[in-house]
Design goal:
This protein is α/β, with parallel strands linked by helices and 328 residues long. It has 11 helices and 10 strands. The longest helix has 28 residues. The chain starts with a helix and ends in a 6-residue tail after the last helix.
């Protein structure tokens, strides 16, 4: 009987130790000899794709391993994101996610085939990029306060362009209008490029656009920047005040990029991948590249990214309700 009890205890201890040993080996063996696939759920050549390729190249050099960047575009990022959710959490399939795919999509996409809180393992935040509130030079407003005053004098007459219903530019503008107590006329486009073209042409008055695409028109005097939507000023445009500085305290509407993996990744492997990516993001050349795209490198690690996803999902759900946007 004593020997039997001893055997049972040994078996129980072995069973308890097995998951820990499995977790450790998962982290120790990665990246092994297999290529790592970094999925971009958007089209080739866009800002997300450019960032992914730069990071993939740097990560490959650091690990001395092949990192294959794959574009799986469609349905505003849903196709590529849902693909990643179905892959094994072995570290060989990662993705670059954004505020659109992992915070906004649940509020604007009907029958979303993935759950942002359950179907992914957070790895690290790459960085953040604010929008600019830009207007055509013919708009008689040189500050955000001027613009709000103008909009209040012409309810529903001042127009804004967006990349389409439910996009960050659409929801950000609706958020701004609600906070400012103004009524704006939203004009949706099929993408931010066509939207910005019509603002430049004077067909639409205003837009929330990322710094990287508005910067050159601003320098050429073809746009006016009224405010930046981050909590702090952008180093690329240090003379442009924040929305919060301009009379709407607490306002923030930023875009973020992050690396995620399929759900249920062993913690040791999650930590190892995050540590390597954070080291890549901390490199001076990478910081310089990201800043040239208007992105401030972060490298948060898993826990802060998980908190960001949770907080922003709730935030944009409230904003979608304010904007009366129903999932489509």
């Amino acid at each position: 009987m004593l020997n039997m009890r001893k055997t049972l205890v040994q078996l129980a201890l072995a069973a308890m130790a097995f998951p820990l040993a499995g977790t450790a080996s998962a982290g120790d063996s990665w990246p092994g000899s297999k290529p790592i696939h970094l999925i971009v759920p958007y089209a080739n050549g866009g800002s997300t794709d450019l960032v992914a390729r730069q990071i993939g190249n740097a990560l490959g050099k650091r690990l001395n391993q092949t990192v294959v960047v794959e574009n799986k575009a469609g349905a505003s990022g849903v196709i590529g994101t849902s693909y990643v959710a179905r892959q094994p959490p072995d570290g060989y399939t990662l993705m670059i996610g954004t505020v659109s795919s992992h915070a906004i999509a649940p509020s604007v996409t009907a029958n979303l085939p993935y759950d942002v809180s359950k179907d992914f393992t957070p790895i690290t935040t790459i960085g953040t990029i604010p929008d600019l509130i830009v207007v055509n030079p013919t708009v008689p407003a040189n500050t955000l306060a001027d613009f709000i005053k103008l909009a209040k004098s012409r309810p529903g007459k001042i127009s804004y362009a967006s990349a389409g219903p439910g996009t960050s530019s659409n929801l950000g503008a609706a958020y701004f209008a609600a906070e400012a107590g103004i009524s704006l006329n939203g004009i949706p486009y099929r993408g931010s490029g066509p939207a910005l073209i019509d603002v430049l042409g004077g067909h639409v008055d205003m837009m929330l656009d990322v710094i990287m695409t508005s910067l050159e028109p601003l320098k050429a005097g073809k746009l006016k920047a009224l405010a930046v939507t981050s909590k702090t000023r952008s180093p690329l445009l240090p003379n442009v005040p924040t929305v919060a500085e301009s009379g709407l305290p607490g306002f923030e509407a930023i875009i973020w990029f992050a690396i995620l993996a399929p759900a249920h990744m062993p913690p040791a492997l999650q930590t190892k991948i995050a540590d390597n990516l954070d080291a890549v993001l901390a490199a001076p050349d990478m910081k310089k590249f990201l800043l040239s795209q208007g992105i401030e490198a972060v490298g948060t690690g898993p826990a802060p990214l998980a908190q960001t996803i949770k907080a922003d999902t709730e935030k944009w759900r409230r904003i979608a309700q304010i904007a009366h946007i129903k999932p489509q």
